[in-house]
Amino acid sequence: MSEREPTPLPCDIDPDPWDIQGVARVLQAEAIPEQHERYGRGYRFLLGREGTAGCSRLKLYPESLVARYRGATIALDLTHVEEIGTSHGAVRIVARTGVAHAVFFLLPHDPLGLRLILTGQMDDRQPTRPTRPRQGAISQPTHRDPLPERSRDD
User: What's this model's pTM, rounded to 2 decimal places?
Assistant: First the structure.
C-alpha cells in the first residue's frame, strides 16, 4: 500500500518566505534578474510602462534581505525582510527587527495601491498621567518671567 501525500490546504498565502514567482504572478510582471553592487543578486519588477509617470518598480534582494519600492511620489526601502509572499491579490512584505515590525502591502489593482503598517516595541516605562486638580480647587494662572532680551548675536 502506498502512502498518500497530504492534500495541501487551500491557502492564499504561499509558504515560501521569498515567493518570487508568486510576486510575478500577482503583479503580472516579469521577474527581471539584476545585480546590485551593494545588495547583491536580486529581481526587478516593473509596474506600468517604463518611462511613464505611472511606472513604479519593486526590487527584491534575497541575499541581503532588502526590498525596495520606487513610485512616482514615494521611495521606500525595507531592510531585515523575513518574508515576501502574496495574499488576497496583493504582495505582502514583512520586515522585522528586535524592536520594530513593518508590513508593506502592494496592491496592483487598487487605486490607493500601497499599505504600510508599522509597529514598535514600547518602552518599559509607564506613561505618566497628567495630574488632575482636586475638585473644588481654583487654579491660579502661573506667573512667568518675561523672555530675556535677545542679544544682537542671535
Answer: 0.66
